[in-house]
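So, can you check these tokens?
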Amino acid sequence: MGRQRERGEESAAERAEKVCGSCGRRIEWRAKWARDWDSVRWCSDACRARGVRPVDRALEESIRSMLSGRAAGATICPSEAARAVAGSDDDAWRDLMEPARRAARRLVAAGEVEITQGGRIVDPSTAKGPIRLRRVTR
């Protein structure tokens, strides 16, 4: 027969899907988090330490404003948002690329944008390589 369910153990269907508050990636359930699953907000210690900084909010707003100025279905590259936030410094935008991708993943989790590759929507937690961002079409 099947083993009995231990205290605090939930089936996969009973666990709510979670997204990291910092990087926007899907948080994978871990057995050691069974008792505290409802309070888990970060996928790692690095994300908890980093949190969401003002530059991250500026990148989110830059993505939103760029997409709102484009036609429905038009896309932008995260580097465009990074360049806008970095300003006139020629190379500072490169340091903002990963924060721009994190901002995009948070916006996906909020239901505001989609991440695409080759015109197809991809999972933001596993997307590798160049990505494009577009508004969610309703």
Notes: The chain has a mean pLDDT of 84.
